[in-house]
Amino acid sequence: MTTSPIAHPPATLEGWYALHQIFRISKARLEPRELDRMIKAAKAKLGGASSRSAASTSKRKAKDEPAAGWSCFVSLIGSTSDLMVIHFRDTLDAIGAAQSALAETTLARALDQVYAFLSVTEAGLYHITAELAREAEGRGGKVGDEAYLRSLSDRSERERASPQLMRRLYPELPAEMPYVCFYPMSKRRDESQNWYTLSLDERSRLMHAHGLTGRRYAGKVQQVITGAIGLDAWEWGVTLFAKDALDFKKLVTDMRFDEVSAKYAEFGDFYVGRIITG
Questions:
Q1: For residue 219, how far is the Cα from the chain centroid?
Q2: Would you name the residues annotated as active-site residues?
């Protein structure tokens, strides 16, 4: 079957798997001191990775192997739930091991899981895919032929070697950004507003403009984008870390006025809180 340029998906690069777990405290009479003790024990069970910060690997070069991942615990604020646990790991099996390790703790017996989101860090190569599709058409070839795949492999490897992309695929837990916001999202597939029927060039244009909005918050908000197609009902997850929680509102507001969000984005529930340290 021939794939049309319109329907062709962008190439993507993937890094760590991610699991977001949302819990309610099931024991109403649980003392705060007892909960703190349980959380500390759970963090130790997961290897103490929840205390890892950007400084721990600041000397690591982009070409070096990334660390195996980390976990963090987030006290939710203004939510019907109480606790979010975020895991990043290098393999799906390692995510499963982290999930099992947490389930074996005393803390788990005091919690009821109400939601979970499985995904993998992702960088969408919209611009490169669109450019290579145009080149293929210009030489009389097609998307997916040998020359296209060879060029895509070369360009992808160059992209993966960049420090900026390494930070997107293997994100560090920011040391000075204690506030966290997580939400899932998908692109619309309505008859009149179907993201998946847009041309590669149009999707590339829209995502480039969207990215420029996010860059205005560099240093204030760290964004981690994870892909969940084939892993969850939602298509992407967005995890934000900030020094000031008010920047979540400002960033998301600005992005919703981007054409790509205004026309094509659907959002799930938002979970906001503060990282539990110590």
A1: 18
A2: 183
